[in-house]
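User: I'm preparing a small set of examples for a lab meeting where we compare how different chains pack in three dimensions. I only have the primary sequence for this one, and I'd like the structure in token form so I can line it up with the others. Please keep the answer compact; I'll paste it straight into my notes.
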Amino acid sequence: MLETIYEILSYEFIQNALIAGILLSIISGIIGSLIVVNRMVFLAGGIAHASYGGIGIAIYLSLPVFLGASIFAIFCAFLIAFITIKHKKEIDTYIGLMWASGMAIGIIFIDLTSGYNVDLMSYLFGSILAISNQDLYYMTSLLIAIIIIITIYYKDILAVSYDKEYAQIRGINVHFFWTLILVLSSLAIIISIKAVGLILVISLLTIPISIARKLSNSLKTMMLISSILSSIFTVLGLALSYAYDLTSGASIIAISSFSFALFLLFSS
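Assistant: Understood. Below is the structure token output for the 268-residue chain.
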């Protein structure tokens, strides 16, 4: 048994997948907690699907795919921040338009790219086993940046997340931190697409957090518990996908969903 595990871990793509899984778990644990407590799940879903436009444009212009997707997602985050501030009552309509428009733009630009036969499944359902060393550098840099920002502005972000009116009375720039949370969420979403895909990314950012929320009494604790849970689900999902030759992203979300169902069953 130990020899089999050692043999599996000797493959570089497995090592990269495990490292990426841990990094993404911490990122999703931190950012997912902010998404959940700020009730931004629908907004995050809009950013995730709209980012497909960035993927299509990057492919058409022969740019790095996740660079194009990141720039496009950040643009969408700023646009959503503006809409939520100026047109809050119509936010559902605008998010729906952005969701559909982004997907349409991505598909059109991919169709216009001559001689390119893109594997849509890799973007829709992810491929964590295809993580490269360059992807790991990007994930590590993003995680370090997130930790630094959260550490410096934790009290302000905490106040904005739980009571915007109180935060405003205290003199905190609510619009700035709301936009900052959206931008960090967009970057976390883009890098998570590499692992679980565009369709399943919101599950990665919400399921472990939903469990952690019931087990914690502070935002810090929620981030910590959700990061640990997400790491466990990712490792188990990778093991399941390797053992039965399944799609890695779907396996990770399936393990997460099953664990959440068990948690609800026993906690009730």
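A couple of notes for your slides: The chain has one domain: 2-267. The first helix runs from residue 2 to 9.

User: Perfect, thanks.
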